[in-house]
Design brief:
Elements lengths: L2 H17 L8 E7 L6 H13 L5 E6 L6 H4 L8 H6 L4 H4 L1 E4 L2 E5 L3 H4 L5 H15 L4 E8 L3 H9 L2 E6 L3 H17 L5 E6 L3 H19 L4 E6 L4 H7 L4 H4 L4 H15 L8 H12 L2
Parallel strand pairs: 1-5, 1-6, 2-4, 2-5, 6-7, 7-8
Antiparallel strand pairs: 3-4
Length: 290
């Protein structure tokens, strides 16, 4: 680690100590990403959070699709402010965060996550205090990233507790997903990456995952797991146009049932490795940024 990175790490540690870390509760951080755009990544993030809420879990979606945030549209919100306004001091986190549905909050990130690394110590303390306070209220923090090999995205994959890689059966999606996974593992071989097969019936989804995981195992010696699949449903685009989340508009559909199945497994899975929380996330983000 460079001296500059060490200094950044010290600032994170100092900020969290001044906050006091009131309890040992740590939210689990998911990075939801994809190798290419247009595969339904943000739709999954939004509806996954709502499915988790049905099991009593609280989630905040941080839209980290730098410059192309649209999660607010799917949640029926028109966000005026983002994490960038918190960093600049114009707004507080309380001003920026929006409760969209019971158990689901949203923060427009913009380029704010990347900008955190350039903050002065005083600014870092203020931001960390607000973020740590948020963590005490949440069970999950979902970073909905952009697609592709953006360096900031790779750092977030490395820093998160778990990454959900959204893949469709299209060859381009499969190839791009492999490249993302390969590059992420080169950055940090300890990454935990799971696959969601989207827009595919069960048999096709299982075949897609089987082929994908076999190639990953053969060439990267990595065991990627499948957290689930979601079949194609043309009504998904209708719900986006209506600015009403799919699982709210079509609660009894096959897709909604599958979303609940995935959420149930996540919500009640045995915790083998405790989440490292926001302090751990920013510590790892800093290490990987240098």
């Amino acid at each position: 680690m460079s001296k500059q990175a060490e200094h950044l790490q010290e600032r994170v540690d100092a900020a969290s100590k001044k906050v006091g870390e009131p309890a040992d509760k740590k939210a689990k951080l998911f990075c939801v990403t994809s190798g290419k755009g247009g595969v339904g990544k943000t739709s999954f993030s939004v509806n996954f959070a709502l499915a988790l809420a049905e099991y009593g879990k609280k989630s905040v979606i941080i839209d980290a699709d730098f410059g192309f945030s649209n999660g607010n549209i799917m949640l029926g919100k028109n966000s005026q402010y983002s994490l960038e306004h918190v960093i600049s001091g114009e707004k507080t986190l309380e001003d920026v965060i929006e409760e969209c549905f019971p158990g689901v909050w949203y923060i427009s990130g913009g380029s704010g996550v990347a900008e955190l690394l350039a903050l002065k110590e005083e600014q870092m303390e203020k931001i960390m205090a607000q973020l740590m306070g948020l963590e005490q209220e949440m069970d999950y923090i979902l970073f909905d990233t952009g697609a592709g090999l953006n360096p900031n995205i790779l750092r977030m994959i490395s820093a998160s507790d778990e990454t959900i890689l959204v893949i469709t059966p299209e060859p381009t999606s499969i190839i791009d997903s492999y490249v993302i996974l390969k590059t992420a593992l080169e950055e940090n071989e300890q990454c935990k990456i799971s696959a969601l097969i989207n827009r595919a019936p069960e048999q096709n989804a299982q075949l897609t995952f089987s082929n994908f995981s076999a190639v990953v195992k053969k060439h990267l010696d990595y065991d990627v797991r499948m957290i689930g699949f979601l079949p194609e449903d043309t009504r998904m685009s209708q719900s986006i146009s209506a600015m009403v989340p799919y699982i709210i508009q079509y609660p009894k559909s096959t897709v909604s049932m599958q979303l609940r199945k995935i959420a149930e497994e996540i919500a009640f899975q045995e915790i083998k490795e405790p989440p490292r929380g926001l302090k751990g996330f920013f510590s790892r983000l800093i290490r990987r940024s240098r």
